[in-house]
Structures are given as C-alpha cells and as structure tokens.
C-alpha cells in the first residue's frame, strides 16, 4: 500500500487556480499571460540559481541558470538536485540519495529506471520538506504537463527556510511569500531511511496539523498565490456586477468537477505506486509489528473498503499467530538449550568421576595380579613343604561275605599302619609309615580331600601325578573311578578332581581363560595305546616328550572338554577300550596301566601370559606276585611287564625323593610317559591300596614295602618341616592370599 494514496496530493487552491487559468485563457487575457510568464520565469530562475548555488554548479549541471519550464522540470526530475539541496539545508534530511539508477537497490519489475529513481528521490525530498513545514508539490508536477510553478514555490520556500536558518533561526519560520499550500499531507514516504509506514504515520499527523493551521492560523487570502489573485482579478475585472454571480457559480462548478477528477486520478496513481512499492517494503512490513497499526490509521483517513479492512484484519491475525508461535518456539528452544547444558555438565562430571574410578580400579587390578602371582608361588611352596611326593595308604573293607574274616591289619594310626604277620612261628607285627592311612571306613570324599589342593596347582601351571597302586582287587579302580554303580557319594577321585577343576576355572573366568582337554592312554605289555578311539583301532603310539605342547604322546587323541559330563563320557569310552581280562583274583582285574591326562591351558586375561599344567590320573595294573596269580604263558608275560614297570616307577620316585642326580625315567614306558610330571615342580601323590584278607598278607607286606621305599625320604623331610615356623608363616600368607582372591 503506497503512502502516496493516503493523502490528497493537491490543494483546493491549485484546483481553483487551474480553473481560473482556463477561464483566463479562454478570456484571452494576453497581457496577463505574458506577465504571469515573466513572473513565473523570474521565480524559476531564482529557484534554479539558488539550487545551483547551494549544491554547486557541477552537481547542478543538469539545471541551467535560467531554465525554461521544461528544462527546470527535466533538471529536477531525478530528484538528485532537490535532495542534495535539501541535505545542504537540513543535514541528513534525505539519508540516501540515489545518485544513479544502479544505486536503486530494488527496482520493481517493469518500472522504468528513471521513473523509479525519480520517485524515490522526489518522494524522499517531499517527505523531508514536508517535515520541515515547507510547502510541497505533486510528484507528477515534475512530469511532462506537470505544474512546475509548484515545484518552484517549494524550492523558493526551502530557500527562504535556509536563509532564515542561516540568519540564526530566530522566532518561528513562516513562509510568507508566495506560499502555495499544496497538500502538506503528501503521502510520499522516504525510501531507504525507514519503513514507509512510519513516514506515513508522521505524514498523516503533519497533514492534520497543517489542516488545522490552515483553518485556524493562516489567513486564506495570504495562502492564495499572487498569480491566483491576479487571475481572479483578471477574470472579474471586465465583468459587470450582475455577471459576477453566474460567473462565480460556473467557476465553482468547474472547480468541483476538476476537484473530483483529480481525486479519482489521484487514487489511480496511488494504486499504481502501491503495486510498485509493495515488494520494496515487504521486509519492513514483516519486521515491524507497528505496520498494521500505521495502516489502520492510514485507513481511517482514507475510508478503506470492507474487503481491504478484512484483508488487513486477516493479515494481522496471521501475523499475531506467527508472533505467538515464534515466542513458543523461542521458549522451547530456551528450555532445550538449558536441558542440554545441564546434561553436558552432568556428563562431564560423571565422566571425570568414572575416570577416577577406572584409574583406581586399574591400580587395584595391577596390585591384585601381583598378589595372585605371589599367591601361586607361595601356594606351591606350601605344597612342596607338604612333600612333592606324598604317599597315602588305603585299606579296602572286606567284601560282602567276608565278614567273619580276621583282618591282616592290626592297627591304624594317622600315618602308620601295623600289619599282623602272625604265622605258625608266632605273632608278630610290622608297621609302615605314610603321609596318611585311610581305614576301611574312609569315604571317597575324605580320600579326595587330601588331593584336592593339588587341583588348584594344576590351574596355576604345575603338573600333578596321582597314582593308584596296589595288588589286584585291592580297590585301585574304586578309589580312582568308583564302583560300577556310581552314586554322588561313591564317585572316585577322577570325577571329583575334574568337577573341582571346572569349578575353579569358572571362578577364575574374570582373570583367566582356561582350555581343558583330555587324553587317555593305556600301557599294556610296554605298548602305548590310545583309549579314546571309537573305531576299535589298536595302533601303537610313540612317546615323544614335547615341552612346547606339553604332550608326551602327541599322536593320541586330545579331546577338548568343557564339563565333567564330557569327561565321564570319555572315561567310559576309555574303560570300554581298556584291556580287561579275567584272573583268578578279580573279574575286573586290569593288567594294564591306564592314564587319564587332563591338559589345562590358562591365559591370563590381563598380561596375556599362558600357563600350562597337566594332571595324570593313573590307575596302575595289579602289583601282585606272579606265582600267586596262577598265570602262565601270555598272562605270565603280562604280569612280568606289569611288575617291571611298577618297579621302574618305584625306582624313579625313590630317586626323586632322594634327590639323586640320575633319575631312571627310560626304564619303562610308564616312567617315560610321566617324566614331565615326576620331579621338579611337579607333585606326585600315590594311593597305596591294601586288601584286609589275611591270606593276602604276603602281598600286602610286599606292597607296603614298595610304597614305604617311595615315601620314606620325603616323609623325613616333610616331618622335619611340618611344624616349623616357615610352614606356619607360609600357611598364614596363603590364607591371606586366598581371602584376597575371594
Ligand atoms: N573302599 C571300598 N569300599 C567298598 N568297596 C570297595 C572298596 N575298594 C574296593 N572295593 C570293591 O572291591 C572290589 C575290587 O575293587 P577294584 O576293582 O577297585 O580293585 P582293583 O584294585 O582296581 O583291581 P584290578 O587291579 O583288578 O583292577 C570291587 O568290587 C570294589 O567295588
């Protein structure tokens, strides 16, 4: 909406003047015309001269010193000279003068550059002078056919104002000369300086003020230009008194017509400028909430149509809604930002706390690993002090139906067994010492409790050998495996050891990753065979000590296991494959050594270090004398092999116990197989089995002698240290370590 349409851009006086001029022309007052022309030219020259002087001849090069009406109009048409002159009088009155067409930032499509330029500068000039109370003119006065006299008037008024200002600006300046009060409420708005609506608002109030001034303070006769007075006089001078009323009526009627025409023409022009100006001022409209208020006041003055009013109201409602939405969004954004900041703060705090905790934990973990390592060493030392070779004796109970028999065992103490060797020559007893003696009533759990500590050693990377030694039928298989019908209570040490091993491995899973695999080997007649075969193959295997893999029989099946049930399955398979032959002494008698080897590989999850340990669970063949077993031929050969290998085992263990420099491992397949687990850091545990029947006393004595030979040296050392302060101290440390480990 253009401001130009907001006010009348012409005055009643100008209309009257026009009508009178037409009359004058028709009346053919030649003298008057020439006088008027002279006077107009003189005033135009005065105005041009002042403009040239004010802004400089060079800047005013488009305006001749004595311009014709056309030259004057063309010279000022761009508005540049006018604006520059106004700025000289009132600095900053036109903030931006468009000097060349390209200065016009936004030129409406289809509008001629010069027209737009003219409009912008001229409009700004008109706004400027209007604000100063100086008479304005119509923008169209600078167009062809326009009234340049009004432009002259405005310039001369500006000149007068300038002179008044230069003279000190005393009193109230009033343009008392040829003031032609053209519409002071020009709706032209300054461009580039502020939204047109503001100017419009200001213009409207100025217009109202001016109207008031016109009606109240100013004598109408003074407001009429000199030319108008002259015209009136010229028109009426030669008229008879009776002709005057008719003439006045005619003139007034024409004035009214002309006025109406101008109004309608004026509104047309307003609409045209509205269309052109709207895009330029859209930004300003959007930015300012005051726009609609100004428009409203403008509309009050110009009686807008219903359609326009409703359109404005709709726009205002839409604008209000958008403002409201923007406020809501701002609020939401503000809350979200605050939330983000608070979350960031919390995150940083938590992160820092976490860092501190992790640091502490890492420190504790490294300390914990050192403790664990130390613990392993100390634990092993304790086991050593207990004896790296331990011998336990177990007396089998009488079998069913033998309850009336007199036992060959005379007495049992914690570590000593006395055998009644009564004969026809008299009563005598023979005592044997071991680490511990289990009587006939000892349970499987009790027997296992003594070997249980060694399971932990296996997981710590040490090798362990557990033997079941004794004559046929003395209970070796019972101790190692259990009876045929297994129950939870009757399970042998093999099952219990493996259960414990898996349990401990599970407990350590946060620090170690364990892999467990088993092999099952049989040594029969000094031949090594794999018991974990499902195809019945009977291939002879070689023993090749490999320190890298820890496998002494690399060709035997090595089966990974993850639970006790896996191991039970494999043990059953091995037992089925084991060479079992009936003898006169025991229908399950085995004439081979069976060895279940459990290989354990543990990786330290922190250091990556790998520990390897293995446990040999050996069920030795019966140790009975050949002559008693009533065997001949192959059976005799089997028995001889068994006895030789058991003797070789005794020699090796005795050598180790006596710390002999030479240990005769190579005298049998059995000792070769177990070489890595006999001696050094390895622990050896032998369960010696005794039958209580009196008729087996000879065998019993010979078995006990064999076992005692192995045990004696070790027992001597162990007994010396048993209650020493070293052991006590170490035991305490281990208890502490164990507590820490929990
Ligand atoms: N501690 C015990 N309690 C109850 N019964 C037992 C005990 N020890 C052994 N037996 C029983 O004695 C018999 C012989 O035991 P076992 O087979 O274990 O002897 P062995 O020494 O392994 O014989 P072989 O050398 O022929 O294999 C079995 O019937 C077994 O159940």
From TrEMBL:
Its cellular-component GO annotations read: microtubule
Give all residue intervals belonging to the Kinesin motor domain.
Answer: 388-713
Residues annotated as binding ATP: 470-477
Source organism per UniProt: Linum tenue
Q: What is this protein called?
A: Uncharacterized protein
What are the entry keywords? ATP-binding, Coiled coil, Microtubule, Motor protein, Nucleotide-binding
PANTHER family reported for this sequence: KINESIN-LIKE PROTEIN KIN-14I, KINESIN-LIKE PROTEIN KLP-3
Q: Which is one GO molecular function term here? A: ATP hydrolysis activity
- A Pfam match: Kinesin
Family to which this protein belongs: Belongs to the TRAFAC class myosin-kinesin ATPase superfamily. Kinesin family. KIN-14 subfamily.
Where is the Calponin-homology (CH) domain positioned along the sequence? 41-163
Is Calcium one of the keywords UniProt gives this record? Answer: no
Query: This protein's superkingdom?
Result: Eukaryota
Q: Which GO terms describe its biological process?
A: microtubule-based movement
